[in-house]
Amino acid sequence: MEFAANNPYLGPDRTEITVRIAGAIRMLRQFLVSIAVSVCNIAIHAIVMAAVLWVARVASERATSHQSLRLIAVMTATVSVLMAAHIAEVVVWSFAYAIVSVAPAGTDLIYFAFVNYTTLGYGDVTPLQRWSLLGPMTAMNGVLLFGWSTAVIFAVLRKTMMTSGTEEGLQRWGVSSE
């Protein structure tokens, strides 16, 4: 029996199997928390996106003699609302961090969430070992939502400029109508 426990050709012993199972459970727990927070943030973003697109459509339908001012107003409002949405999403991550105790005591969790969400990665605060996947999952969520915001900003810009007049209005701003 002792020969079997020490023989590397007979596979891992029970202690090693237990350690592997515990690691798999820990990773699954991190993925489940990350997925739940990401879905919450995607819902927030979807609601904000729908509102932004609706407001941009309404604003672009209003004719004004100062098309440049309308463009400035619509784009400023769009970007401001999107920034507020990203801040709300960072706060959601910080709440999740607090609930699962992801960082050492005394850590500014909003700062930590911002560093992860924006992929800044200063490294001055690191998660506890058992939650090491939450940082990269937060970063992945942030990158996806920033990309979505960028697409919406471009769509609002394009819609606002298209309604500002004719083809020549688009060309004047350097935007193709195709």
Kindly describe this structure:
The protein has 178 residues and is mostly helical. Helix content is 74%, strand content 0%. The longest helix has 48 residues, at 14-61.
Main attributes of the structure:
single chain, 74% helix, 178 residues, 6 helices, mainly alpha
Give the DSSP E fraction (strand runs of 2 or more residues).
Answer: under 5%
Distance between the termini: 76 Å
SSE run: HHHHHH
Number of helical segments?
A: 6
* Rg from Cα: 24 Å
SS-derived structural category: mainly alpha
- pLDDT under 50 segments (min length 5)? none
Shape: elongated
Largest sheet: none
Mean pLDDT: 85
* SS elements, strand count: 0
- Helical residue percent band: over 70%
